[in-house]
Design a protein that fits this description.
single chain; about 250 residues; alpha+beta; 2 domains; 5 helices; about 20% helix; disordered C terminus
Length: about 250
Amino acid sequence: MSDESGPRGPVEWLRWLWTTDHSGVAYVREVFTSVGAVLAVGLLLFAISGVWPPMVAVESGSMEPNMTVGELVFVMDEDRLSPEAAQGETGVVTYQDGRTAGYQEFSNYGDVIIYRPDNRSGTPIIHRARLWVADGENWYDRADKDSIGDAKNCEQLRNCPAPHAGFITKGDNPATNDRYDQVTGLSSPVRPAWIIGTAEFGVPGLGYVKLCASGNGPCPLYVWSGPATLVELSASTDPAAPATTNSTRAAV
């Protein structure tokens, strides 16, 4: 092959596209290489976690101090590596069972789960599983009395008796989330089928990259005064998507 004749055949063209210093071709090549690397990382994380997106970015403070705004959280299918203290076959450890077994995630007992309130297609929530209730159970006596408001008995407690079996959930921040999600009306008891996954570990601050890029959450570059949301990742480029921890939610 000579410089005058140029590349001949598909193999030579591919070699030329991969090695040429031509500015336009090199730029396009770098873009495709970067996108490919991100996709490869995302697919690897998906293979490990079994959840897409495999990471979420925290937008609000309802899980503080154990999970902070801007934290990038790795999510795993709750059925993978299920702890011995998990509730039945759900793969999720509640606060009550975690306290008995000495099992902790994010500096407190039990698992933090990402779930869809009442299986709605809108914004998922990331809160801690506090206890499991059976279908029709009067769970008033098992509830944390500081998390049920002014209710004096089951009749005064929302979702009691339990309309179906599921998890009672709550954010860790006592200032913004002093009551169970099922008491505030955010969701009925969370069925296992509504759970997207469990939060495994987080990297503080790294989630701001996604939040600033998407414009759907708090960003240090501008002032944000609204509640948090979780925007699921498009399967195109980024393995990190924003997650809500605030029980007062905004539309995506």
